[in-house]
Amino acid sequence: MIAILDYDAGNIKSVEKACNKLGAATTVTRDFAEIRKADHVILPGVGSFGDAMEHLKKYELDKVIHEVVENETPFLGICLGLQLLFESSEETPGVEGLSILKGCVKRIPEGKDLKIPHIGWNDLTLQNNGRLFQGFEKNPYVYFVHSYYLEAEDKSIVKATTNYGVEIHASVEEKNVFACQFHPEKSSDVGLSILKNFMEI
User: Known catalytic residue: 183?
Assistant: First the structure.
């Protein structure tokens, strides 16, 4: 069973649909008992960093997320879900993230030919043998929608990068914690393969 965390964020249904397409049993929930017994947990999200942290704390999901991570249940953050795993974001200064991983989230710098938010398909540069990308050819294309990007403190946890005027840490992995800035659920067969690799961990 995959528990998809419900904290009033966007994009939950498309993650559920992609997992179901792969044959996985899913539950969209904020029930602690269901989350604790899940084989895998996903934190999806589209929205603002500050609002998301407020909702996680409102439902006390921040506590159960830390518990799940400590129990080494495979955990996947997607888009805003990646950003929330880190310490802070320039989107909402002064708001602390979950601080499960070290690093900060920064605004993509303005560029002459770059539109913000960054919306569309970009190729990934794979590195450090990420388990989400097992069996992949180099430079798969995935779908992004974001205005802020991760700069991880420990570069060894970075498993994929992309470039959009700045190097973006597009996917990270540390022990049982995985995260993608892009949307695997919207990235066609490549994205489904990423989700399948996660489910098999």
Answer: yes
- The residue to which tokens 């540069």 are assigned: 125
pLDDT score of 114 = 87
Q: For 134-144, what is each residue's pLDDT tens digit?
A: 999 889 999 99
Q: Which of 16, 91, 173, 185 is catalytic?
A: 185
Domain boundaries, position 13: 2-199
Q: What is the CATH number of the domain that holds 112?
A: 3.40.50.880
pLDDT per residue as tens digits for the range 59-77:
999 999 999 999 999 999 9
Which of 79, 91, 118, 169 is catalytic? The answer is 79
Provide the number of structural domains found in the chain: 1
The Cα angle at residue 162 between residues 158 and 166, in degrees rounded to 5: 100
Q: Does 79 participate in catalysis according to the annotation?
A: yes
Distance CA 4, CA 76 (A): 10
